[in-house]
């Protein structure tokens, strides 16, 4: 559950234990300072709270625990007023808590991030200044090394802990995607060995027999192509979410699923990477163009989708062998309020800073979609 972050909490636990031991050594060497009983009581509280934090962190990281940790540590630091005299502090003695005061700063940083670590450092630094002022130390000449170190620890450790959490999340998602990929491969092998072979056999035999069997064979061929596209497609919403987080997507992976018995999709062997929103909008425009083929052309009309990169632009052409678009049909449809091509295709391309051109004749229609290829897309795609 904790993954990489767990190592931070183990390090904090070791630091707290070592700090208590260091405070014991300092107190013993100073002979208990001016008030030994108060000093040893403070040490006992520090040791007891250290044991509590070893049990509660990191499984419990709620605000009550974090606030209690900060408040109790500040209280132990303030107890220095009862343990030491002015002479002890003037001789350079550390507060009775010594380095133990950094414990809650580190805990806040790991649990809540660098800003929280800085806040905890500010609280502990203020308590330290209060103690030294209460013991009569001239604050204007007081070194600020301790406060600076606390702030640096809170900010740096908080930042590194956040990076560790992000890295752990990426590793988790990568493991999930790898597992899903293996499962798709297993299913693909099973489907290929059974369903796809049967559908291919039905298609072939139907074409040989002719008549109604030929129509059955054609339907079997369409289902075979659809299954093949499903097997090789990305892992649906999980893959799409991962692409969205990475802010880029390979256009080819979004266009492959359109391929079936009547639609042929052709693409380069190298990736064509675009910003994820651009890639999905381009794919949706292609889908709208293919829907028009289905609605306005005869059953079984063939269509071809070709995607390539040309002169810094990703270009997708959708061509069919239908009867074409009659002269004035698009203008009339737009005037009648039917905005399919105007919005689903041309509108999408305009929003992306791209273009959509339509060429039609009695032998078919070709829709060419073009969007700018981002520099990062060309670099990652391996094309210049």
From TrEMBL:
SUPFAM superfamilies: ATPase domain of HSP90 chaperone/DNA topoisomerase II/histidine kinase
Biased composition (Low complexity): 354-365
Region feature (Disordered): 354-384
Keyword set, alphabetical order: Kinase, Membrane, Transferase, Transmembrane, Transmembrane helix, Two-component regulatory system
Domain spans labelled Histidine kinase/HSP90-like ATPase: 281-374
UniProt GO MF annotations: kinase activity
TM segment ranges: 12-31, 37-57, 64-87, 93-111
Gene Ontology biological process terms, A to Z: phosphorelay signal transduction system
DUF5931 domain ranges (all copies): 3-168
Name this protein carries in UniProt: Histidine kinase
Species assigned in the record: Planotetraspora thailandica
């Amino acid at each position: 559950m904790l993954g990489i972050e767990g190592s931070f909490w183990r390090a904090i636990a070791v630091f707290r234990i070592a700090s208590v031991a260091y405070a014991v050594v300092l107190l013993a060497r100073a002979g208990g300072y001016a008030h030994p009983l108060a000093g040893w009581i403070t040490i006992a509280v520090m040791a007891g709270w250290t044991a509590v934090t070893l049990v509660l962190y990191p499984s419990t990281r709620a605000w009550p625990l974090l606030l209690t940790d900060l408040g109790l540590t500040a209280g132990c630091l303030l107890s220095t007023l009862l343990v030491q005299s002015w002479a002890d502090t003037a001789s350079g003695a550390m507060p009775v808590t010594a380095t133990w005061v950094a414990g809650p700063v580190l805990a806040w940083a790991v649990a809540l991030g660098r800003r929280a670590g800085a806040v905890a450092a500010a609280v502990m630094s203020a308590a330290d200044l209060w103690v030294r002022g209460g013991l009569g130390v001239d604050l204007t000449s007081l070194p600020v090394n301790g406060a600076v170190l606390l702030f640096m620890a809170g900010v740096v450790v908080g930042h590194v802990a956040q990076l560790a959490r992000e890295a752990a999340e990426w590793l988790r998602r990568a493991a999930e995607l790898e597992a899903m990929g293996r499962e798709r491969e297993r299913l693909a092998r099973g489907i290929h060995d059974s369903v796809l072979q049967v559908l291919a056999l039905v298609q072939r035999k139907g074409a040989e027999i002719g008549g109604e069997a030929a129509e059955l064979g054609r339907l079997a061929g369409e289902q075979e192509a659809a299954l093949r596209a499903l097997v090789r497609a990305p892992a649906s919403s999980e893959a799409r979410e991962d692409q969205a987080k990475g802010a880029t997507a390979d256009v080819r992976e979004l266009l492959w699923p359109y391929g079936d018995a009547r639609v042929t999709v052709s693409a380069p062997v190298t990736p064509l990477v675009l910003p994820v929103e651009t890639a999905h909008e381009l794919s949706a425009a292609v889908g709208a163009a293919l829907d028009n083929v289905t609605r306005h052309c005869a059953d079984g009309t063939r269509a071809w989708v070709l995607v390539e990169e040309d002169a810094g632009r990703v270009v997708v052409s959708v061509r069919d062998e239908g009867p074409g678009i009659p002269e004035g049909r698009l203008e009339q449809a737009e005037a009648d309020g039917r905005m399919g091509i105007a919005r689903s295709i041309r509108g999408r391309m305009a929003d992306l800073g791209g273009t959509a051109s339509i060429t039609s004749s009695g032998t078919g229609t070709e829709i060419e979609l073009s969007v700018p290829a981002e520099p990062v897309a060309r670099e990652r795609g391996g094309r210049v």
